[in-house]
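TICKET: design request
STATUS: open
ATTACHED STRUCTURE:
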């Protein structure tokens, strides 16, 4: 038998295992016994940390947004706000691919069966969008984006990238229009749709690609 896990690792391990089971096998696999066996702990651990399985599902959502926030806040502010905006998009995609099991729970890609999320649960991660809204406001102030509502721009960017990433995670995108090539085009398109010049947007998006590994890609999938 595997050694029993102890706090603080136990809570994170239970979230990871629960999300993976939901993503790979569906809600029928989400039982306290199965989770405990996978974690090498007792079934009581689920109740101790989450109160019930429904509490575990809710914490998957919160953990997913916490990880997303860590990636977004790793993007440092520079004198090129459009490059910063593109880098936020890269951070969003990186987090989704690194934590696809949590991403599926956060945004309804996993069937939850009898484990439902409240409206409050579904909206709990909106604080992460403030990073994008703030950057959009900087792009407007710099004259790169047309005058408008920065929160609307943030929502447009979110919905556009989320759609592409959902297709990517579902393995729907293949050459010559695979996820890598479409993602770069999508970033430039999002910047120009907000009002940026096409050539300037392309330069900023390319600059964000070069910055990516130094500022975002180093963060482990579940790390701090």
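STATUS: resolved
RESOLUTION: sequence designed for all positions
ATTACHED SEQUENCE:
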């Amino acid at each position: 038998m595997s050694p029993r896990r102890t706090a603080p690792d136990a809570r994170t391990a239970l979230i990871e295992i629960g999300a993976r089971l939901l993503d790979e096998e569906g809600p029928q696999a989400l039982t306290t016994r199965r989770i405990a066996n996978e974690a090498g702990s007792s079934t009581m651990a689920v109740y101790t940390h989450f109160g019930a399985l429904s509490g575990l599902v809710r914490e998957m959502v919160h953990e997913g947004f916490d990880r997303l926030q860590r990636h977004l806040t790793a993007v440092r502010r520079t004198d090129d706000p459009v490059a910063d905006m593109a880098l936020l998009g890269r951070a969003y995609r990186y987090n989704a691919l690194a934590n696809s099991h949590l991403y599926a729970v956060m945004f309804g890609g996993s069937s939850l069966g009898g484990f439902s999320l409240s409206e409050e649960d579904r909206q709990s991660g909106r604080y992460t969008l403030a990073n994008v809204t703030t950057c959009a406001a900087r792009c407007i102030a710099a004259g790169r984006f047309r005058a408008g509502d920065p929160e609307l721009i943030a929502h447009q960017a979110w919905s556009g990238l989320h759609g592409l990433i959902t297709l990517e995670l579902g393995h729907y995108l293949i050459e010559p229009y695979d996820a890598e090539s479409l993602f770069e085009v999508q970033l430039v398109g999002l910047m120009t749709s907000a009002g940026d010049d096409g050539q300037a947007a392309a330069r900023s998006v390319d600059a964000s690609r070069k910055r990516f590994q130094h500022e975002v890609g180093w963060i482990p999938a579940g790390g701090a």
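CLOSING REMARK: The first helix runs from residue 9 to 25. Confidence is low (pLDDT under 50) at residues 1-6.
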